[in-house]
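Below is how a single chain appears once it has passed through the pipeline. First comes the sequence as given, then the structure the pipeline wrote out for it. We keep one example in the README because the format questions we get most often are answered faster by looking than by reading.
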Amino acid sequence: MDKKRRSIASTILLWTVVVAMAPLLIMTIQGYHCARQAVLQLKMNQLETVSMAKQRRIADWLDERARELQGHTAIADEEACACRSEELLALNPAYKSITLYSKDWFRLAATGLDTHDDEMLLPPAFKQALAESQEPAVSRPHIHENGLIGIHIGVPIPGKQQYVVAVLDLSSTLYPVLAEPLGTDHTVRSFIATAEGTLLDPTKPGTESFIENAALPPTMDSGMPHPRIYTGSRGEKMVGVSVALDDLGWVLVSEAPARDAFAWVGVLRTRAAATGLATLVLVVILAGQSAHRVTLPLRHLADVAHTVSSGQYTTRMQEFPGREHTEVAEAFNSMLDEINRTQARLAQSAALSAIGQLSASIVHEMRNPLSAIKMNLQVLQKKFGDDPLHLELAEIASDQVNRLETMLSDLLQYGKKLELDITAVDFAAFKEEVLRCIRPPAEGKQVAVTMENTGPGNTLYIDREHMLRAVCNLADNAVHETPDGGSVSIVVSPSETEPDAISITVSDTGPGIPARVAEKLFEPFFTTKENGVGLGLPNVKKIIELHGGSIAFRNGDAGGAVFTINLPTHGNHA
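Resulting structure:
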């Protein structure tokens, strides 16, 4: 036996685990991916909402300052403009200075801290935008050394071709807007990325280099509201979105740590792993039990087979739960029973073969003396024909000689190997021979013997001589068991139990055969007749089986014995 070959139990266990766990693993991976995407999308929607809200607040603040400055357009002279400017400076600390320019860009009035000269206050692009449009213009923000963010807003005064330019501190508004938390979620951080590569973070004093402290994806630099996962300025994975501040030329970024965003996904992963591990343990336990239940009968079958091969032929398989296991056990036990019966038949055949050889030699040695005795008795019968006493003794001796000859003939017939000559035999001729051989005993008991053919054909494919001996033997036994005046019927018909076969049924109106006798009918040397040898029916069975057929017995429903011979239709003999 190959010890390296994988056992059925391990194969069942392996494939059960694979079949059970593979779909679970696939569904777990898909579920984790879907859950991660859903959490990411939810976080992105939250961050986008924060960014858009803060973008709106900054834009509203700029629009509000522009509307305040547009109030100068209704003032008639420079003095009134100065008064208006002083009011704005007093009302809103974000205003640092307000300057009134002529159409030729000469200063007409200035209010507040004059921290800018005309060159700084009127950058070329800002100056051109203000001169070419009737709408307020906003300059690009600039960052002072002290960290404050300055911005210039200019408003044209229609009709006078004058301009009002205000310097505002954006820091006091921008940083609080950026630092404002989203409800109770303090993990969200918002900051500004300037066009010059500067990071404006309200959580830190001053400014930090954007290039050195942040590695945002290129799409976030341009303010595209696409969610991204990246390494933030603090060296950890971040989830973020960005929106453009068009008036300022900057980008507003809102981000949150990826570990916080995916915290629930981590819990889900842990639970899925625990569930998968528990499922694996359960599958292994169930698969192990199933494999044990499947292989236990096989191991038991192997043990029984080894036991039987060692000579213990009475060992049988026990029953196990399960229909298939029961069927295997029944089939195996039935096979062992049949083997035992076959061995018994082989032993009997060997013994009968030895008996046949012995019988042949005995018959050969006894026939000559019996022939001499028979001839001498015939002479004595003739000599003492007028002496009744001696004549009766001679006839008794002659009858016993004839009985011995019949016995020896049956014994020789049983032990002899028969060679069949299967030919097509006409039913009518075969019927005539059967009735002729049975007529003397039947007439002596006034038993009516009939023979008929109810099949479609009139031809029998048989060995005429041997089949005649078999049928006559059955008919003779039937006549012997039938009371005087009874009847014996022989019927040839299509077989009711076997396809492509015919039946020859011999039935009588006798008392039938007891069950204790019936089970031994075809055993050699078993007889219930006073002068019988017990080889008649065994010889009949031998002839039938050599024809490839079978013979069975039953008691008739109305009494009497019924012997049924089944023969192949076209003489397929063994």
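The chain is about 50% helix and 20% strand.

See the next section for the split statistics.
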